[in-house]
Specification:
It contains 3 helices and 6 strands. By secondary structure, it is of the alpha+beta class.
Length: 118
């Protein structure tokens, strides 16, 4: 299973606030479901993260990447490239170490995700 590390509160906004694009400095040809990893490092909105007790350091959901664009009519788009997102599905935090770019999760994490989806 592929995963992508995303800082909070962006994971939260993808899963709960309609954020429909993930901004990156690099393009991707990947299409399909990807696990969302909430990284340990966070964006500057630390008060929002503390107030909402957002999870860090693990898999928090699944989202489908359907396109990669350089322009988009979305209030969330501000990057050089945007991974267009659809069908976000939150799951309870599954602790997991992240990595840069897309990465494969360990087998035991993949099993826990599959068990959660069953």
């Amino acid at each position: 299973m592929k995963a992508l590390s995303i800082r909070q509160p962006w994971c939260h906004h993808i899963l709960h606030s309609g954020k429909d694009v993930e901004n990156r400095d690099w393009p991707t040809r990947f299409r399909g479901d990807v696990l969302m990893h909430a990284s340990l490092s966070v964006e500057e909105d630390r008060d929002f993260i503390r107030t909402h007790d957002l999870p860090l350091g693990g898999i928090v959901g699944i989202v489908e990447i359907v396109d990669c664009v350089t322009a988009m009519d979305s209030r969330w788009f501000f990057g050089r490239y945007g991974f267009v997102l659809r069908n976000p599905r939150p799951i309870e935090l599954i602790p997991c170490k992240g990595a840069l770019g897309f990465f494969n999760v360990p087998a035991h994490v993949a099993q826990m995700v599959e068990a959660h989806l069953s």
